[in-house]
Structures are given as structure tokens and as C-alpha cells.
Amino acid sequence: MVSKVECSSVIILLICLLKIENIRAQCTKPSFGENRVLTPESYSKESFPEGSTAEFQCATGYVTALPGASKTVTCTGGRWSDLTLQCKKRSCGPLGDIPSGRYTYSPEGDEGLLLGAIATPECDKGYVLTGNNRTCTVKGWDDRDAICEEVNCEPPPPTVPENGKPTEPLEDVYKYQTVITYSCNEGYVLSGHDSISCLETGQFETPPKCIKLSCGVLEVDPNAMTTGARPPYSLGSLVTFVCKTGFTMEGASELKCVESGWSSSPPRCIELQTTTTTRPPTPRTTRPTTKELQTTTTTTTTREPAPKITMPTTKGGVLRKYKSWSAH
Prior knowledge:
Radius of gyration: 64 Å
Subcellular location: Virion
Number of domains: 4
Protein name: Sushi domain-containing protein
Strand content: 25-35%
Keywords: Disulfide bond, Signal, Sushi
Mean pLDDT: 83
Pfam families: Sushi
């Protein structure tokens, strides 16, 4: 017969075994990636025994990608079931148009409207931007809408250009691409364009200059001659210098009337230095002396004397022929 003490021991052992098995069947706190998180209720639980469930939701800045997907998982045999909930970045949507401007998004495409994307404002040419880049946050686009304001230019100083003036009175402010036209005083001519425009930078182009119509009188070297333009010399006149014979030029041979005056100083004519050339002595021709003539070999040719012919004489009325030769 089993005693009461033995029964009690068996009961206690069974209870302990059941508790041990129950501990083994519990699950740890589940996690399925940073964009899917436990609900506050499930996150506050300290234990997840066999058969218990845990509920998930999308993290801040993310939304459900598959409507109707299950948000709960179950602890079975110490392991969690698969979570079918899928989450994606929330979209901030496109920003409204900026008058005389636009937004560009980074990254490009659909990603440029999702959480973390950046919208950069840009203005049309002739407009200046007031505003900053905007970022897609969990609450939507941050910051305020940018503004594109038309460029304005302040007028140039009224004293510019020297010896000239605007054709019309200057205004306080000029809009983008507005034009100011200039003219020069009598005796001066414009150098450059006669008008300037208000640029997109908010500054006017450089005004033209007014220069004198002519250059001063040239100082010509007394040993030089000039060709080309004659006084008075207008802008662009060309004068060419030539030195007289026996002189060489020092300086530019051609001068031009430019905005700042003559292109260079008039040249000088320097006299050439004469030099004496010494020739080598001419060889003297002399007649041979008597002694030299005596030593000269001469050749004498002796001819044989011609036969001597005597005229025939008549004796007794008979013509006789005689032939005689001189002795050798």
C-alpha cells in the first residue's frame, strides 16, 4: 500500500515536469525587420508561452504594402509562425508647381517621392530663388514652398561713361533684360555696344566708353617721309614711315590711331655709318730684260734656194736654152 508521503512526492514531480515543459515551449519576443514592429500591447508582454500570439504594425514612415495581410504570429513549439504583413516607405506625393520654377527630385523616378527623398527647387532664367531643399519625412514634405522672384538690377552710376550719358533718364530699378542706351558728347565716339542689358545675375553689362574722334599731331623725324592718312587723324587712321636713303629706321614703321592714342611712338631715322674698303694691290706687268731675251730658245728654219733661171740668148739666130743651178 502506497503511503501519503509517496503520493505527494509523485504529484510534486509531475508538476515540476509540466512546468519545465511549459518553459521549454515558450517563445522569445519576436522581430521581423526594422520596418515591421510589435504593437505597444504585444511589446509590453514579458513572456510568450505556447499558443500565444503577437501583433505587428508598420514602423513610422511605412505603410502596409499588401492590404488584408495578417498582422499576427503564433508561438508553436517554441517558434513563431511566418508574418505575412509587408510594409513599404510612405510617399509624400509630388509638390505643387512653383510659379516661374520647378522642383527636381532625388533619387529619380518613383523613389524620389518616398520617405527620405529630397526635392530641390529651381527657377527659370531671369528669376532668383527664395527657399530651401525639402525632405520627405514621416509627416510629409518639410519646410515651406520656395518662391521664384523676378531679377531686378540697380542702374549704373550716372557718371558712366565719361564724356557720355544715357539717352533717357535713369530709373531706380530695372527688370531682367531691360536695356539702357548711351550716346557720347560731341567730339567723342562710342567704343563698344551702345546699349547694355540687365542680366540674370542682377547686374548690368559693362557700359561702353566714349573716346576722342582723332589722335594728336605726329612728330615726324626730319629724315623720314610719311604715307597713308593725313591730319586730322580719325580713329583707325594708318600712317607709314620711310627713311631717306642713307638712314635706317629705329621703331615701328606703321602707326595706327587707336582708342588710347597712337599705337606707338614715331620711329627715328639713324644715319648709316660709311666704311672704307681697302683693295689688294694689282700685280705689276713688266717687259723681259735683254738678258732674259738672250736665254730664250729660238728655232731657225733654212730653206733650200730656188733654182736660178737665166734668160736664153740668141746666137746666130738660134735660140738656145741654158739652165744653171746655184751650188749648194
